[in-house]
Design a protein that fits this description.
This protein is α+β, with helices and mostly antiparallel strands and 126 residues long. It has three helices and four strands.
Length: 126
């Protein structure tokens, strides 16, 4: 009996250009909205969602992110009375919105959006 040698088929190498053109690339506009007051935050998110819906964009979210809580404890007195203290906290509410394959019209409409003060927006293209 002769030993049979099976050869495995070699994997096809695909160039980066061919890989890029083969599959459609999905772009995502990731918007992080932050505010101290949740009511203003929800109104701003609704305004962003309505603007994106007006241009028939596919929107994922809003996803509520964990609230960032910063706490401080300070003495009420300047010198004595260590037991008398005050506690303060600051809450930062956050939401995440993804807009899939945004058109230039959607991006332009979002940049021209007038949002209330106290709302911070971070926009990234992912």
């Amino acid at each position: 009996m002769e030993p049979t040698t099976e050869t495995k088929p070699k994997a096809k190498r695909v160039s980066k250009k061919a890989a890029a053109t083969a599959a459609p690339v999905e772009h995502k506009l990731r918007i992080r909205v932050r505010a101290y007051e949740h009511k203003i935050l929800d109104l701003s998110v609704k305004q962003i969602m309505d603007t994106a819906a007006r241009f028939d964009a596919v929107v994922v979210g809003p996803v509520p992110l964990p609230t960032e809580i910063k706490r401080w404890t300070v003495n009420r007195s300047t010198f004595v009375h260590k037991d008398a203290r005050e506690q303060f906290e600051m809450r930062v509410h956050k939401r995440l919105i993804d807009i899939m394959n945004p058109s230039p019209k959607v991006i332009e409409a979002l940049t021209n959006l007038n949002l209330p003060s106290g709302v911070t927006i971070d926009v990234k293209m992912v």
